[in-house]
Structure formats: structure tokens, C-alpha cells
Design a protein that fits this description.
Distance between the termini: 107 Å
Shape: elongated
Strand order of the largest sheet: 9-10-12-14-16-18-17-15-13-11
Helix content: under 10%
Strand content: over 45%
Largest sheet: 10 strands, parallel, barrel
Number of domains: 2
Length: 377
């Protein structure tokens, strides 16, 4: 009986050891120095390809793996379920769970489900959970969470937050950002710098907004023709200068910088001239009701019958405000003019410098004056 009990114990111990060994062996990850194939499951890792970690993969059509630690190259797609380091190159797309110190290059798109760490280059789109690094796409970069890096998109960039830069051909969108540069529109809640070819929209701008139209709750330095700033100033003005050109303008901006957009008319001579004006100005406060407005403007005048008149003006206008809304201003200006076919040249007869150049063009400079009244909206 004792022998039987002792034998049973030996069997139990041996079986236990074999079970533990078998379990340890089963938990050992499958690795392969190289994974070569056509398309799953026609490859060197066969039906178990999704369980392998490979150092190098090469597939004619598409490769499937758990992880990649070196280079993965596919004619169509790389599908990596878990993680990837190194380089992934595909003719169409890369689909990865997460990356670390990785570079993805795709003919169409790169997709990282969770965290992307490294660089992504795609002809059409990069689509990530989060990004730390750099991505460039011919059409769009879209990150559902945060970006600590730079996004360059041919059409658009989108992220929840971006701590560095977004650069695109059409639009950038984020909640909290650092620098946004685009050909058409930027949109953010909190941002340091926005530069757009047409429109910037933000709640709080710490630095500079540059665009044709800038919209913000607070922005100290908006540079644009139209600036709709919640805590800033908006004014309409009517002015007249030494050429008797009457100009109506809309002036809008922050506490210091503001944009100018105006239209005007001159009937000094028999030929009526119509004017368009754009520029930028700065309020320099001195006393509670007295300040100096400095403005740099460009004015284009035409009779719509041939000929052009361009004038660049720097004006310094002391201004006094009556009450809280009405302000009168007047001051000297320095002007540089360019005229084609002598249009508008005779509006001034006191040039301090002038010259006739070829092709019926005239250049000149003179000191003038302008003044008017403006009402705060």
C-alpha cells in the first residue's frame, strides 16, 4: 500500500512538472527572423502568422503579423495587430495597433489604432489614435486624441490637441494648439499663433492672428482686414485727405492692433475715381480720451476706363474721443504713389520726389494730411 501511494505521488509530481513545462512553452511568444509570403496564409508563418513577431517581413500582396521589430514591406498592405518598430512600407496601406520609434510609408494611407510614435508619410491620409512625432499626407491627417508633433496635410489636419504645429493647404482644426498655418481656415479654442489665407477662428489667442478675417473672444494682435474680437474695438469712419478723396472704412481689431477695409470716391477732376483701401493700424493710448492712431494703408483708385493709381500711406493721427463712442482724428501722412497712364497724378502738385518711367508709368512721393470722424460700434 505504501508502494502504491509512493508511486502515485511520483506520477503526480511528474505530471505537474510536465504541465508547467507545457504551459511555459505555450506562453512563449512565437518569433521569426524572417516572414516571407504572398498573402495570408500563403507565407512562411502560415495560418499562425497573426501570432508571430518578425524581424523582417516581405509580402507580394499583404502580410499579417502580431508584431514587427525591423522592416515590413508589402506590395499592398501590412497588417500588424499589436506593435511595430523600425520601418513599414506598403504600396497601399499600413494598419498597426501601435508603434514605437517607427516610420510608416504608404501609397494611400497609414492607420495606427492606438498610439503612433515616429514618422508617417502617406499619399492620401494618416489616421491615428494619438501621435508623438511627425506626419505628412497628401490629403489629410486625422488624430482622434492628442498630437505632440507636427502635422502637414495637403488639405486638412485634425487633432484633439496639438502641442506643436499644424500646416495644411485648406484647414486646420484642434481644441488646443500651438501654431496653425493654412491656405484657407484655422479653427481652435486656445492657440498661440494662427496664420490663414482667409479665416482664423479661435476663443483665446495668446500670440498673433494673421488672415483676411480673424474671429476670437480674445486676441491681442490680430492682423487682418476684418477682425471680430469680442474684447476689442469695431469702428466705422469717414475721412477726407489732401486729394479730396472721401473714404468710408470699417476698422476692427484688438485693444492695440486693428485692420482697415474701406471704399472711397474722388470727384476733384472731370474723371471720377473710385477707391478701395486696406491696411493695418495701431492704437497708442496716451490719456483717457486722447490717443494716437498710426495707420499703414494701401489705396487703389481707378476710373474703369484704363489707367491705375496706387498709393501706400503711413499716417499718424492724434485722436480725441467725445463720450464713449465718437472720435475725431487728423494728422500728417507720408505717401508713395505709382500711376499708369498718369491717372491721378494731378491730384497732387507738391511732390517732394517724382520720376517718369517707361511704359507710361509715374512714381512719386509727397507729404499730405487726412482727418475725419469715427464711431465705435
Amino acid at each position: 500500500m505504501r508502494t502504491f501511494n509512493f508511486s502515485n505521488r511520483i506520477v503526480i509530481i511528474v505530471v505537474s512538472i510536465l504541465s508547467l513545462a507545457s504551459s511555459a512553452f505555450a506562453q512563449t511568444p512565437l518569433t521569426s527572423p524572417a516572414h516571407i509570403g504572398f498573402v495570408y496564409p500563403l507565407s512562411s508563418n502560415g495560418k499562425n502568422a497573426a501570432a508571430y513577431t518578425n524581424h523582417f517581413s516581405l509580402h507580394i500582396i499583404a502580410g499579417l503579423s502580431k508584431a514587427e521589430t525591423g522592416a515590413a514591406i508589402a506590395g499592398i498592405s501590412n497588417i500588424i495587430k499589436d506593435s511595430a518598430t523600425g520601418v513599414q512600407i506598403a504600396g497601399f496601406s499600413n494598419h498597426i495597433g501601435r508603434t514605437s520609434r517607427s516610420v510608416q510609408v504608404a501609397g494611400f494611407m497609414n492607420q495606427v489604432k492606438n498610439d503612433a510614435n515616429g514618422a508617417q508619410l502617406a499619399a492620401f491620409m494618416n489616421l491615428d489614435g494619438s501621435l508623438k512625432g511627425f506626419q505628412a499626407a497628401g490629403f489629410a491627417n486625422i488624430v482622434s486624441k492628442d498630437v505632440d508633433g507636427t502635422q502637414v496635410g495637403g488639405f486638412m489636419n485634425m487633432a484633439r490637441n496639438n502641442s506643436q504645429a499644424q500646416i495644411s493647404g485648406f484647414t486646420n482644426i484642434t481644441n488646443k494648439g500651438n501654431v496653425q498655418v493654412t491656405g484657407f481656415m484655422n479653427k481652435a479654442d486656445d492657440v498661440d499663433v494662427q496664420v490663414a489665407g482667409f479665416l482664423n477662428i479661435a476663443k483665446k489667442v495668446k500670440g498673433v492672428q494673421i488672415g483676411f478675417i480673424n474671429i476670437a473672444d480674445s486676441s491681442e494682435c490680430p492682423i487682418g482686414a476684418i477682425n471680430i474680437i469680442k474684447g476689442g474695438e469695431k469702428q466705422v469712419s469717414v475721412s477726407i485727405d489732401e486729394t479730396t478723396t472721401i473714404m468710408a472704412a470699417f476698422k476692427s481689431g484688438g485693444r492695440i492692433l486693428y485692420g482697415i477695409l474701406g471704399v472711397g470716391y474722388n470727384a476733384k477732376n472731370s474723371t471720377s475715381l473710385y477707391a478701395l483701401q486696406a491696411g493695418i493700424g495701431a492704437h497708442l493710448p496716451l490719456l483717457s480720451h486722447f490717443r494716437i492712431n498710426t495707420e499703414a494703408t494701401a489705396t487703389f483708385m481707378t476710373a474703369f476706363k484704363g489707367g491705375e493709381f496706387h498709393r501706400q500711406t503711413l499716417g499718424i493721427y492724434p485722436a480725441y474721443r467725445f463720450g464713449s463712442r465718437v472720435e475725431v482724428f487728423a494728422g500728417p501722412t507720408f505717401n508713395y504713389v505709382e500711376s499708369k497712364h498718369d491717372l491721378g497724378v494731378d491730384l497732387v502738385n507738391h511732390y517732394i520726389w517724382s520720376e517718369d518711367v517707361r511704359n507710361n508709368r509715374f512714381n512719386g512721393a509727397y507729404i499730405g494730411a487726412a482727418g475725419g470722424v469715427q464711431v465705435r460700434l
